[in-house]
Design brief:
Strand 4 and strand 5 form a beta hairpin. By secondary structure, the chain is an alpha+beta fold. The chain has a five-stranded mixed barrel with strand order 1-2-3-5-4. It has four helices and five strands; from the N terminus they run H-E-H-H-E-E-H-E-E.
Length: 118
């Protein structure tokens, strides 16, 4: 009986550890925006008319996201590091990104693996 319980526990642990490794990347297309302005100013907080402000905020390390028709994904991880250094060339541009999406504290987070301007 103890062997069965130990085996069952080991199996559950192995599956639990493997689940994150099985998480598939998703591909989304949207505009790279300064989250604060995009959410508070609506149309005025995105696009070419807001590019200089968004770039300034991104350089100061403000949260940057990818805005799609149905959601805003806050960029995390390597692309958000060093005051969004890897995203600065993409601010206010429509991009296609591939990465992992997670949820935390009511936010939808995006850890970008690849990015390309459209």
């Amino acid at each position: 009986m103890r062997n069965r319980i130990a085996w069952a526990c080991a199996t559950v642990l192995a599956v639990a550890m493997a689940v994150p490794a099985l998480a598939a990347d998703v591909t989304i297309t949207g505009e790279v925006v300064d989250i604060a302005c995009a959410t508070s100013k609506g149309e005025g907080g995105r696009g070419d008319g807001h590019a200089a402000c968004a770039l300034s905020c991104a350089k100061r390390g403000q949260p940057v996201g990818v805005l799609t028709d149905d959601a805003i994904y806050e960029v995390t991880g390597d692309f958000a590091a060093n005051n969004n250094a890897k995203l600065l060339d993409f601010i206010a541009k429509v991009v296609t990104v591939t990465g992992e999406i997670t949820e935390q504290d009511g936010k939808t987070l995006l850890n970008i693996r690849t990015i390309r301007a459209n």
